[in-house]
Amino acid sequence: MFGDLVACGVLAVGSRPAYAAGVDDFVTPRQLAEELGLSDRTIRQWLREQGWQGVPFTRWRLTEVQAAQVRSHFRRLG
Question: What is the pLDDT of residues 28-61, one digit of tens each?
């Protein structure tokens, strides 16, 4: 069956599976830092203080809603 899908051109190499849709919709502390003119360390420290880090030593991936909260906080201070 897998071979049939490839032969028909249904399966594209490098395509993202359905469960990975929206993976690129995340914002990183580095992206926010560049946008806000801060260090990414400052952003990460604030995120930790808010209790947003679920698992230590993992990559930060913020939703657009969370990113908006970070922007709001640091723009208010600036």
Answer: 999 999 999 999 999 999 999 999 887 888 899 9
pTM of the model: 0.65
Structure tokens at 32: 């926010």
- Closest by Cα among 42, 64, 66 to 54: 66
Which phi and psi angles does 41 have, rounded to 5°?
-65, -40
CB of 28 within 8 A of CB of 62?
yes
CB 27 within 8 A of CB 65: no
What letter represents residue 9's amino acid? G
Pinpoint the alpha helices (H) of 1-78.
2-8, 29-36, 40-49, 64-77
What tens digit of pLDDT does each residue of 8-32 get?
Answer: 333 333 333 434 445 568 999 999 9
